[in-house]
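All the exercises in this workshop are built on plain-text protein records. An example says more than a description, so a record of this kind follows:
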Amino acid sequence: MPKGVRCFGVVGFICKAYFRSMRSWRLTLGCIVIAMATPALGESDHYIPPPTTRQLDGIDKQHADALIAQLVTAQDALRAGKFETFELLAGAPASYDESAIAPRTAFLRTRFDQVWEIRRLTSTADSNDPRRTYALAYAPNGLGKAYWNIVVNLGFSDDLIAVTMRYQAPAPF
């Protein structure tokens, strides 16, 4: 309440409540501005290693290992100069250094043996469904920091169709 203003009764109560709520709104707004000005809000300062046991969702360990082996084989073939037919896309928000990395370079730098999470994205009642799409999480700098979200599409005979890699910030909570 501004100095020198005196209100009595119900009007005074309403005036006090109004000015107190304005004070709390200013405090809340100030906290939001400070939080938004903090660089890399969702990232922690220290290294948190990914889990040693790979997190699997909708896929068993045997199939997960086979998927990782298939990706490593594709990396080896590209390094050897062999012709590979799968589509390869990679990107990052414009402010990240990873946005300047070519998709092939990003793919070849990825340590697929260190992928800590694999989820099957397509699921149907028929387990013989030929379409298979998986999401992999690779955190080269540890958990709580920006990571590669990798989507792998397999075809009818489990051949590699596409690998889409997106470098993104972690969830802020």
